[in-house]
């Protein structure tokens, strides 16, 4: 889990605890965080392995690291992301994120189909207004 500050991690832990002990049923729609994740335009995906192999004394060592933009994969944006006076994530009450109505935006026909007899898949389709 990326380090977005102690308070954000505390909110995340409270959310996980709530979900673990609630009677509600949830579906995990999280996208994997890996080298193929779609990035915010203009951001670089810099996954890499720092070290993997045997050290000089023969001990196996695997020390991996990565750096990635916060606006990638599945995440939540605070109002501040697009509004200077908007609140940051730690200012959003946890109870406003649970049991709220959702909206399904079906873009299936825009991201895959058949064109000229070949599969036509757009893996990084971007929604706009």
From TrEMBL:
Species in which this protein is naturally found: Allacma fusca
UniProt entry tagged with the keyword Signal: yes
Domain of life: Eukaryota
Upper classification of the organism: Eukaryota, Metazoa, Ecdysozoa, Arthropoda, Hexapoda
Endpoints of the signal sequence: 1-24
An example Gene Ontology biological process: L-tryptophan catabolic process to kynurenine
GO molecular function, one term: arylformamidase activity
Key words of the record: Signal
Protein name as catalogued: Cyclase
InterPro entries associated with the record: KFase/CYL (IPR007325)
Pfam families hit by this protein: Cyclase
